[in-house]
Amino acid sequence: MTVCAKCNQQMQPLKNGVCVEEHASFGLYRIWMADAYQCEQCGAMVVTGFGLAPLWEYFEGPDARPGDPIFARFGEEEPR
Ligand SMILES: [Zn+2]
Questions:
Q1: How do residues 2-48 score in pLDDT, each as one tens digit?
Q2: CB-count burial class (<10 Å; 0-12, 13-18, 19+) for 43
Q3: Is the separation of the CB atoms in 44 and 14 below 8 Å?
Q4: 40 near 4, Cβ under 8 Å?
Q5: Which residues on adjacent β-strands are paired with residue 35?
Q6: What is the Å distance from ligand 1's center to 33 Cα?
Q7: DSSP string for residues in 25-47
Q8: Which of 23, 29, 37, 63 satisfies CB 3.0 to 4.6 Å to 75 for a cystine?
C-alpha cells in the first residue's frame, strides 16, 4: 500500500510498468521498470515497486538500452 503523507489517502496506481533512469556522477547508470502511483486528492506522484534487477546497466553499452520512453529520472546527475 502506498499512502500520501500530506493527505492521509491511499495513492492509486497511475501506470504499471514505467521506465525509470538512475543517474550517477558519471551519467546514466541503470534503467529500471517500476510502477507509478498518484494521490487523487493533491496529485502527488511516486514511483515504487522496482523490479529485482535493472533492465539495463551502463556496462552493457548504449546499444543495449531499451527503447521504452522514460517516465522518471533520479540520481546525482541533473535531470535533462
Ligand atoms: Zn495527497
A1: 999 999 999 999 999 999 999 999 999 999 999 999 999 999 999 99
A2: exposed
A3: no
A4: no
A5: 16, 48
A6: 24
A7: TTEEEEEEEEEEEE-TTT--EEE
A8: 23
**Grid cell of 2 as nine digits:** 502506498
C-alpha cell belonging to residue 3: 499512502
| Cα–Cα distance for residue pair 26/22, rounded to 1 Å | 11
3-class secondary structure, 24: strand
Distance 77 CA to ligand 1 centre (A): 28
Cell of residue 76, nine digits: 546525482
Query: What is the per-residue pLDDT for 80?
Result: 56
The rounded Å distance from CA 44 to ligand 1 centre is 6
Number of Cβ within 10 Å of residue 28's Cβ equals 19
CA of 58 to the centre of ligand 1 (A): 35
**To 10 degrees, the CA torsion angle through 28, 55, 2, 6?**
10
The residue type of 17 is: G
